[in-house]
Amino acid sequence: MVDAEAPFLEGGEEPLAGVSDFRGRPVYHVTSGGWRSAIFVAVVEGAGSFAYYGVSANLITYLTGPLSHSNAAAAAAVNVWTGTARLLPLLGAFVADSWLGRYWSIILACTLYVLGYGMITLASTLLAQQVAFFYASLYLIAVAQGADKPCGLSFTADQFDPDHPSECAARSSFFNWWHFSIAVGIGIAINVVSYIQENFGWGIGFGMLCTVMICAFVVFLLGIPTYRLHVSIASSDTSMKMKMPQPTWRRHAAC
Questions:
Q1: Directed axis angle between helix 101-125 and helix 202-222, to 10°?
Q2: Could you tell me the end-to-end alpha-carbon distance of the chain, in angstroms, rounded to an integer?
């Protein structure tokens, strides 16, 4: 009875095929997706890039300073960590496509981001024997990158309907602003965060990154009621199967 009346609740508009909200209910153009949802995701992705480069840009200085590594050991450690962070998205994409989905992968990534940056802040301020704890926090951040990076942009694309003319145009515009904003954020992180770390203290610098990620996670959670979640597999006992969404590359081509 509720399903039959749902379209009339939105002024007669039909629900989007193959899409639901976080509770599995049908969604509509006027109440979900588009810029209203994409902005929430963009905040998380921008904060993630800002925080990552805020750590990596000055990491060798921290390793050779407070942790007393040699230049060679510090360079090797940074290379291994960076390589791990770059490769883990391959595993993260597989896990997201096979089990978690993009939405839950981003939730997991945000949780690991907050935990990792919180641990790295503690390692730089409170702990006497900090080397092992510091490296554990670094690789926790790398795991978070692996869960986040394959899903952020794709999940944002899911918020725009490629068959809706205005949303298709809005998506192209949004992607332009997305990459511009990420580049600006990285530039600020490399210069400003490094300056704060060296002149005001490592704990303050790392703590600022943790605070940024906590705020970004809260923003992402605020957008949950508006997100469009694409259905990947139809239930075998469902009487009416929903239309499967097109792959991301085909939706781009349609625009």
A1: 160
A2: 36
215-231 confidence digits (pLDDT tens): 999 999 999 999 999 87
Mean pLDDT, residues 143-166: 90
Separation in Å, CA 214 to CA 1, 64, 113, 236: 41, 29, 8, 39
84 contacts 139 by C-beta, under 8 angstroms: yes
Q: Kindly give, in sequence order, each residue whose CB lies less than 8 Å from that of residue 233, ignoring residues fewer than 6 positions away.
A: none
Rounded to 5 degrees, what are φ and ψ at 69? -80, 155
pLDDT, tens digit (0-9, with 9 covering 90-100), for 23-46: 888 888 888 888 989 999 999 989
Which of 16, 62, 52, 13 lies closest to 230 in space, CA to CA? 16
**Residue 175 confidence (pLDDT) above 60:** yes
Domain boundaries, the chain: 32-228+243-254
pTM for the full predicted model = 0.82
| Half-sphere exposure of residue 101: CA atoms within 13 angstroms, side-chain side | 10
Strands (E), the chain: 19-20, 229-230
pLDDT band at 80 (very low <50, low <70, confident <90, very high): very high
In sequence order, what are the beta bridge partners of 229? Answer: 20
Domain 32-228+243-254: homologous superfamily in CATH: MFS general substrate transporter like domains (1.20.1250.20)
Q: What is the pLDDT of residue 95?
A: 94
Structure tokens at 225: 């009621």
What are the distances in angstroms from CA 180 to CA 56, 84, 183, 188?
Answer: 20, 26, 5, 13
